[in-house]
TrEMBL record:
Pfam families named in the record: Thioredoxin
Residue span, Thioredoxin domain: 73-156
Highest taxon in the source lineage: Eukaryota
Name assigned to this protein: Thioredoxin domain-containing protein
Organism field: Rhododendron simsii
Region (Disordered), start-end ranges: 188-212
Listed InterPro entries: Thioredoxin-like_sf, Thioredoxin_domain
CDD domains: Phd_like_TxnDC9 (cd02989)
Length: 212
């Protein structure tokens, strides 16, 4: 029985793939060739409108405080902040080293992800909120979408378990929760978080800060 020539088989497969790619490129070129000036102008106008809408959206975000990592000083202001923005990352902190580490990373991400509001609030000075949202370990990030706490990042366990995690690791965790968007991506699959979604209006019961 004649043994097939492996090299010939591979060459045929490569040629088949190359032909398919070439055909696809030819189709795309043909589609472009069929565009008349009106089509090109319509595409240009559509793109300009998209850019205009994005500029307007960025302007609204900046007016709401997006782009900066700021502190909420009064508990009552928390509610107006989360209602004003579709996506909010709120750092419940105390004056300790782990929270300062989290501050460093959030300051960077706030500038990179203008689509999301980044804020912090002192948990020890906000007992009502801390109890309401069951904040126990500090630091804790409440990931809020449409005025509801959708997920939490508690301590550093999900970030490698140490305080030397990179900003990118935190960024990926926030993107997984869809509270930020990675560059070039308009949507990500929702995380399978077991954290129960809680409205900021829902009451809860307990709060203890960590001892570090």
């Amino acid at each position: 029985m004649e043994v097939p020539n492996v090299q010939e088989i591979i060459e045929k497969q490569v040629l088949t793939v190359a032909k398919a790619v070439e055909d696809k490129i030819d189709d795309e070129i043909s589609a472009l060739d069929r565009l008349d000036l009106d089509d090109i102008e319509a595409l240009r106008e559509r793109r300009l409108q998209q850019m205009k809408k994005m500029a307007e959206k960025r302007g609204r975000w900046i007016a709401l405080g997006h782009g900066d990592y700021s502190e909420i000083h009064a508990e009552k202001d928390f509610f107006s902040v989360v209602k004003a923005s579709d996506r909010v990352v709120c750092h419940f902190y105390r004056e300790n080293w782990p929270c300062k580490v989290m501050d460093k990373h959030l300051s960077i991400l706030a500038k990179q992800h203008i689509e999301t509001r980044f804020v912090k609030i002192n948990a020890e000075k906000s007992p009502f909120l801390a109890e309401k949202l069951k904040i126990v370990v500090l630091p804790t990030l409440a990931l809020i979408k449409n005025a509801k706490v959708d997920d939490y990042v508690v301590g550093f366990d999900e970030l490698g378990g140490t305080d030397d995690f990179s900003t990118e690791i935190l960024e990926e965790r926030l993107a997984k929760a869809q509270v930020i968007f990675l560059e070039g991506e308009s949507s990500l699959k929702p995380s399978n978080s077991t954290a129960k979604t809680r409205s900021v209006r829902q009451s809860t019961k307990s709060y203890n800060s960590d001892s570090e």
